Amino acid sequence: MKNILIMILLAFSVCITECYSQGGIVSAPILEAQVGTLNATQVSQTSIMTGMNSVVAALEKADREYKEALTKATWLRNLATAGRILYMVENLVC
Fold first, then answer.
1. Can you tell me the distance from the alpha carbon of 57 to that of 69, in angstroms, rounded to the nearest whole number?
2. Distance of alpha carbon 79 from alpha carbon 91, whole angstroms
3. Where do the domains of the chain lie?
């Protein structure tokens, strides 16, 4: 009975050792596939960031152009107002 328990215990320990030792084995093709996946992910992230940077640059350019147009429109309104004032003064004086 004692020998049977020892043999069962040894068999059980061998099974446990085999189960845990197989988990750490990684073959080269699996590692290559993982590296390929990581490279593809990095390339897609880089392209996304490039696209986002392009969008930000375009928005900043549009904002600058909008502010310049507002400044020009303000000058034109002020110039038109000054022209009307001069016209009124000219009519009052003459």
1. 18
2. 18
3. 64-93
Say what the alpha-carbon torsion angle 76, 78, 83, 86 is, to the nearest 10 degrees: -170
Could you tell me which of 64, 84, 82, 62 has the C-alpha nearest to residue 74? Answer: 82
Query: Which tokens in the block code for residue 59?
Result: 């928005």
Distance separating alpha carbons of residues 24 and 73, to the nearest angstrom: 71
pLDDT 10s digit of each residue in the chain, 94 long?
Answer: 667 767 776 666 655 555 555 555 556 676 677 777 877 888 888 888 999 999 999 999 999 999 999 999 999 899 889 888 888 888 888 6
The pTM for the full model equals: 0.48
